[in-house]
Amino acid sequence: MHEFATAQQIVRTITRVGLQNGAKKITEVHLEIGDLTFLVPEQLKFSFDIASKGTIAEGANIRITHVNAKVFCPKCKYKGVLNLESSGDTLMMELSLSQCPKCGERDLEIIGGHELNIKNIRVET
Ligand SMILES: [Zn+2]
């Protein structure tokens, strides 16, 4: 369950930043999550609730912006979004099978989708 480890990391980061800025409470966290992190938003929210218990981030509202996986074809310079629908093993498989829609090249470079960014937090001071 890698959502839990991720949630703990997020809580650690935002509580540190919050405290440094004199926050009494963190009310909202805005996250940017790439497709290729394989994080399930619902599970991440659930894990966050557990990981933030007893911290200033407890009860914070989580907003998630979804970032599509993007690929770049070194052969024809095609750049595009990789559509991944399922999760887990299936998704890994689709990813390795994916090819350039323009020239059919299979050796695509992944240029987006690994993001896990804390965009901003909203606090009460
Ligand atoms: Zn191509």
Structure overview:
This protein is elongated. The strands form 2 sheets. It has a 3-stranded mixed sheet with strand order 2-1-6. The protein has helices at residues 2-20, 41-51, 89-97, and strands at 25-34, 61-67, 69-72, 79-82, 109-112, 116-124. The chain has 125 residues and is an alpha+beta fold. It contains 3 helices and 6 strands. Helix content is 31%, strand content 30%. The model has no long low-confidence stretch (mean pLDDT 88). The longest helix is centred in the first third of the chain and has 19 residues, at 2-20. Helix 1 crosses helix 2 (41-51). The chain has 2 domains: 2-68 and 113-124, hypothetical protein PF0899 fold; 69-111. It binds zinc ion. Zinc ion binds at residues 73, 75-76, 78, 100, 102-103, 105.
Helices and strands, with pairings:
Layout: H1 2-20, E1 25-34, H2 41-51, E2 61-67, E3 69-72, E4 79-82, H3 89-97, E5 109-112, E6 116-124
Parallel strand pairs: 1-2
Antiparallel strand pairs: 1-6, 3-4, 3-5
Bound molecules: zinc ion (ZN).
Zinc ion is lined by residues 73, 75-76, 78, 100, 102-103, 105.
Short structural summary:
The chain has helices at 2-20, 41-51, 89-97, and strands spanning 25-34, 61-67, 69-72, 79-82, 109-112, 116-124. The chain is an alpha+beta fold and 125 residues long.
